[in-house]
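Input C-alpha cells:
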C-alpha cells in the first residue's frame, strides 16, 4: 500500500489554554499566577489564537491538510457554576464554521487538561457532583456541534490523573507521563465516569477520548512489573474506551520498565528538547498496542510530534513515525487519521521553551511563520510528496 486509506484525516492539533491566551477563569491560570508558584512561565496571551483563529485555519488549509483538532474551553463557556456564556458558545461555533467553510474536518475536544476554577475548588473530578457537572457542560455545548463528525470528550485522562499526583508534590522531576507516580485511583475513576456520561449526551456523534500511550517496554524480565505499571497509567483508560466510536492515540516516546519501576533514558540515546528519548517508533508501537488491547475500536492519531529547535529533526522524526504508522495500517490496524502535535509553537504547561509546532509564533507580535516541516507534512498529506513515508 503506497497510499493511506481513503478518507484518511491529515492535520494538526491545538488546545485552547495553550494557544488562545488569557484563559483567566481556569484552574491552570490560577496555578500559573499563584505567588511563589513552581511554574517558570505564565501562559499570558499565549498565541492569541482566540483572535487569530482564522489565520491559523487558513494556514492549515494552505498546507493541504483536511482536518483540524482544537478544544472548547470549559472555563470560558461556564466561568461560574451554572452560568453559561452564550457569547463564548457563539465564538466556538464560528471556529467550527470556519473549519467547515475551508473544507476542514473539525475534531473537537471538550476538555483539554484545564477546568473552570470553580470546578476545581468544588473538589474537581473526585467530587460527588463532578460527573453531573461535566454532563451539564457537554449538554450546553451540544447545540454548536452541528457538522462535527469527531468529538473527543477528555484529553489524556491518564495524564490528567498523573499530573494531579505530581501537582500535590509540586514537583516536575519526571515529565514523561509513563514515568510519573501512578494516579490516585479516584482521579482515574472520576474522568472515566464523566467520559461515559458525556458519551450518553453525545449519542448522535462519533465520540471517544484520547489516551497518552507510553510504549512501556519490560527490561530484564520485568514483564509482570511492566504490565502492572501500565495498567494504572494507561490500560485501564484504554479498557474504558472498549465500546467507544473511536479512541485517540497520542504517542511521543517510550518508557522502559525494570523490576523497580521506570528506567532512565539509555546512556547515549538521542534526546528531544524536553529530555524525552528520540523514538519515532513510538507511534507505530502505540497504535498496535491499542488495537490489541481494545480490538475493533477505530484509532485516530490525535497527537504525535517532537520538541526540537531543529526543523530537519522534526521531519526526520515525523517521517519515522509515519513509516511505523503506515506499516501498522498495512498489517490491518484500523487507523482513520494523523493529527500532528502541534500546529503552533505554544505554551507547554509551564514553559514556552519546548517547540513542537509546525508553525513558529513570535512571542511579541504573534506573527506566524510556517516552517519547512509543515510544508513537507502538507506534501505528504496531499500526495504531493515524491515518496510517502
Amino acid at each position: 500500500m503506497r497510499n493511506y486509506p481513503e478518507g484518511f484525516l491529515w492535520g494538526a492539533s491545538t488546545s485552547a489554554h495553550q494557544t488562545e491566551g488569557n484563559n483567566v477563569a481556569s484552574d491552570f491560570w490560577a496555578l500559573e499566577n499563584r505567588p511563589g508558584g513552581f511554574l517558570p512561565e505564565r501562559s499570558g496571551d499565549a498565541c492569541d489564537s482566540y483572535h487569530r483563529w482564522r489565520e491559523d485555519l487558513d494556514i492549515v488549509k494552505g498546507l493541504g491538510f483536511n482536518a483540524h483538532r482544537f478544544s472548547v474551553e470549559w472555563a470560558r463557556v461556564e466561568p461560574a457554576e451554572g452560568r453559561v456564556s452564550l457569547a463564548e458558545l457563539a465564538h466556538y461555533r464560528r471556529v467550527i464554521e470556519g473549519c467547515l467553510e475551508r473544507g476542514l474536518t473539525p475534531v473537537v475536544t471538550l476538555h483539554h487538561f484545564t477546568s473552570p476554577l470553580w470546578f476545581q475548588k468544588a473538589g474537581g473530578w473526585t467530587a460527588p457532583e463532578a460527573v453531573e457537572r461535566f454532563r451539564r457542560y457537554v449538554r450546553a455545548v451540544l447545540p454548536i456541534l452541528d457538522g462535527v463528525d469527531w468529538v473527543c470528550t477528555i484529553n489524556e485522562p491518564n495524564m490528567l490523573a498523573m499530573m494531579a499526583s505530581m501537582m500535590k508534590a509540586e514537583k516536575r522531576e519526571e515529565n514523561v507521563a509513563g514515568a510519573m507516580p501512578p494516579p490516585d485511583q479516584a482521579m482515574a475513576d472520576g474522568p472515566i465516569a464523566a467520559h461515559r456520561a458525556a458519551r450518553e449526551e453525545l449519542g448522535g456523534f462519533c465520540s471517544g477520548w484520547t489516551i497518552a500511550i507510553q510504549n512501556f517496554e519490560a527490561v530484564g524480565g520485568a514483564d509482570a512489573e511492566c504490565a502492572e505499571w501500565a495498567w494504572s497509567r494507561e490500560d485501564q483508560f484504554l479498557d474504558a474506551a472498549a465500546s467507544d466510536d473511536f479512541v485517540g492515540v497520542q504517542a511521543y516516546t517510550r518508557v522502559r520498565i525494570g523490576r523497580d519501576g521506570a528506567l532512565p533514558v539509555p546512556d547515549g540515546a538521542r534526546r528531544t528538547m524536553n529530555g524525552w528519548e528520540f523514538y519515532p517508533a513510538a507511534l507505530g508501537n502505540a497504535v498496535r498496542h491499542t488495537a490489541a488491547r481494545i480490538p475493533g475500536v477505530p484509532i485516530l492519531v490525535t497527537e504525535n510530534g517532537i520538541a526540537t529547535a531543529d526543523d530537519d529533526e522534526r521531519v526526520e522524526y515525523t517521517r519515522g513515525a509515519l513509516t511505523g504508522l503506515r506499516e501498522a495500517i498495512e498489517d490491518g490496524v484500523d487507523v482513520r487519521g494523523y493529527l500532528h502535535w502541534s500546529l503552533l509553537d505554544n505554551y507547554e504547561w509551564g514553559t514556552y521553551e519546548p517547540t513542537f509546532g509546525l508553525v513558529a509564533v513570535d512571542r511579541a507580535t504573534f506573527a506566524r511563520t510556517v516552517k519547512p516541516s509543515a510544508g513537507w507534512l502538507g506534501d505528504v498529506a496531499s500526495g504531493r510528496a515524491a515518496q510517502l513515508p
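The CA atoms of residues 8 and 56 lie 21 Å apart. The first helix runs from residue 16 to 19.
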